[in-house]
Design a protein that fits this description.
The chain is an alpha/beta fold. It has helices at residues 34-41, 56-59, 62-67, 76-79, 89-92, 165-176, 193-199; strands spanning 2-6, 15-19, 24-28, 45-50, 71-75, 103-105, 110-113, 116-122, 131-136, 142-147, 150-151, 154-155, 182-185, 191-192. The radius of gyration is 16 Å and the shape is globular. It starts with a strand and ends in a 6-residue tail after the last helix.
Length: 205
């Protein structure tokens, strides 16, 4: 399995593209419209878009990918927030592009997309329906994509609409109980569960 990181130009989130066959890809949080062209350059067709949450800096490229045929998925709880003040488009004065959710995940639900196992872990706190995605490759390796729940050495903000400090700490407690694996956050550098357990003050007992 190959994981491609597309870093934002200017303000935006990390975008991750995941492929097993080097032909089709799952994209997590396409932050900017250029994500589509970056993946076309690599010969990849995006079949599915997974959203950790609906904040404007994570979804700027969703519309273009959906128009090209990709299906958009997120947690059932987050779907309700799309198009509301909770997506922060209005707060930050960002231009809104329309997209819709084709399919939702329930907590712990697993789907197989392009031969890749995807399990959604509901991790509210940054938003009410925020999620992490536990990806299992065909070789059995596991990888966690945490959006704005868990960062390298930090966590996502809890002062936006629908955010909750109490829920965030419950979600972090859930994540720190996972086995060690690579962590790919919405912002900043990758890390691991074990490193965050040992060093992240927000995961301290």
């Amino acid at each position: 399995m190959q994981i491609i990181t597309i870093s934002p130009r200017g303000f935006g989130a990390n975008t991750y593209a995941i492929t097993e066959d080097n032909k089709t890809a799952i994209v997590i949080d396409p932050a900017q419209p250029r994500v589509e062209s970056e993946l076309i350059k690599r010969g990849l067709t995006v079949t599915h878009v997974l959203l950790t949450h609906c904040h404007f800096d994570h979804v700027g490229g969703v519309s273009a990918l959906q128009q090209s045929g990709a299906r958009v998925l997120c947690s059932a709880a987050e779907k309700k927030l799309i198009g509301t003040e909770a997506d922060l488009f209005a707060m930050f004065g960002a231009p809104r592009e329309h997209y819709s959710v084709d399919e939702t995940f329930a907590d712990n639900e697993e789907k197989t997309l392009n031969g890749i196992k995807v399990q959604m872990l509901l991790t509210p706190g940054h938003t009410a329906g925020g999620a992490c995605y536990l990806i299992t490759a065909q070789d059995g390796s596991k990888h966690l994509f945490t959006g704005d729940t868990l960062f390298n050495g930090s966590i996502g903000r809890t002062d936006f609409p629908t955010a909750s400090v109490a829920q965030m700490y419950l979600s972090l407690n859930r994540l720190k109980k996972l086995e060690d694996m690579p962590v790919y956050p919405g912002h900043n550098d990758p890390t691991t569960i074990e490193y965050e357990r040992k060093t992240n003050p927000f995961l301290a007992d």
